[in-house]
Amino acid sequence: MKTVGETIKEIRKMKNLRQKDFSNLSQASIASIESSKRNVTIDKVQSFLDDIQMSLREFEYIRNDYCLLPSDELFYDFTSAKNSIDRISGTNLIKKIDKHLENNPKDFIAYSLRVIEDVFFKKLANRIPIK
């Protein structure tokens, strides 16, 4: 995963912007953030994102080398599976979430998905006979 500064620089260059083109960040501030000489606050990142009209989720997607973050991937899988009565895909999703939670026990999004998925499939199991 790229640093915040590397990501800001990449996006700025993609959009053909100069370091001095931002409303609430000075050229010196952008330069030090991009070179990782300065810690960046969420307020400064949000100011940058506001100027380029980009969401934090899009920023993180670029920062993660154009890949979904693990919790975003789980959320995507969850939204795809919730419209299905396929128990196998639901069971596989529960296993995937459980594995993620083993490595990231404080991931509230994954934990919430696990609880919802578990309740959903228990309700489904009570309505549809197993063959």
From TrEMBL:
Transmembrane feature ranges: none
SUPFAM superfamilies documented for this protein: lambda repressor-like DNA-binding domains
Family matches, as Pfam families: HTH_3
Chain ranges of the HTH cro/C1-type domain: 8-59
Protein name: Transcriptional activator Rgg/GadR/MutR domain-containing protein
Native species: Listeria floridensis FSL S10-1187
